Amino acid sequence: MSIAEKKKAKFEQKTATYEVKIHPQTARLYHIEISKTAIAKFLETVEQDHQSVQHLEYTPYARHIVASYLLDQVGDEFGELIRSIVHDRESGGFTLGLEGVTENTDEYVIFATAISHILGIPNHDSMSGKYYARFSVKDTDSSDSYLRQAYRLFTLHTDGTFVDEPTDWLLMMKMVEQNARGGESRLLHLDDWKELDKFVKHPLANHKFTYKAPKSKNVDQEIDRLTFFNYNNEPGICYIDQFVNPETIEEAKYLRDLSNSMENDESVIELELPIGDLVVVNNIFWLHGRAAFEKNPNLNRELLRQRGRFSQNVQ
């Protein structure tokens, strides 16, 4: 049975307020369409309750309240559904959006906050000092990481490598895009990587590498992490090439070869994500990155990022 056939039996469904389909670009992901009526009613309730982005930033419980407003429109089973998808090893990810109901980026933040707090609890983002980060990619950049550098490959990695808190899932939402060609989100499911066994069985797979964040991340700690670990009796991965600090030539070659193998794997997906849509993936067995943009002096893309842990009541 193919991946698509297995997944159809699990989660593909249609209700009065949303539809879950296999993603048109890859059988690994789902695409969820929430009805425009449900989205409009959600945003109307948010407005009536005077929920603003600032209020969400200042008042943590308000983030759970907007999550409840979305569930009021789509049903409590929607929460179980998206958590189950992100937990599911055969998939572990989905896309969804606001279906053109609004182009207000504050409402994008509120909607993404509802989704993240249905999933679990977002981590504090030290780069922004908030529970989420908004950042732009433009023609010129002087940052100390590849995150904002438009014209080079942002290599495949997992988030949360240099912090000592769980980072179970990642949410990325496209807020603004102007004069952009290229820059697709690149994704690789660990089980689709052809050379996974080669690197999992290497002696250095059990070595703890030291991770150090650059100054822009506002994280001073160093942390030692395994590259591969057991996750529900399957491999999990923790890796980013920019912030890992090997101590020997042998270690450096292992990391270089690992990264090159992933980047050149034929199963890497270049995901098309419209403005106002978001993608959620399990950070334990999905790697993500970004293709290079084509040169344009007027390039402007803004993204929102949230990442965090599952709630304790999630099975």
Automatic annotation (TrEMBL):
SUPFAM superfamilies documented for this protein: Clavaminate synthase-like
Keyword RNA-binding applies: no
Pfam family, one: CsiD
Gene3D superfamilies assigned: Clavaminate synthase-like (3.60.130.10)
Alphabetical keyword list: Iron, Metal-binding, Oxidoreductase
Domain of life: Bacteria
NCBIfam families listed in its UniProt record: PRK02963.1
Protein name: Carbon starvation induced protein CsiD
Organism: Metabacillus rhizolycopersici
Gene designation per UniProt: csiD
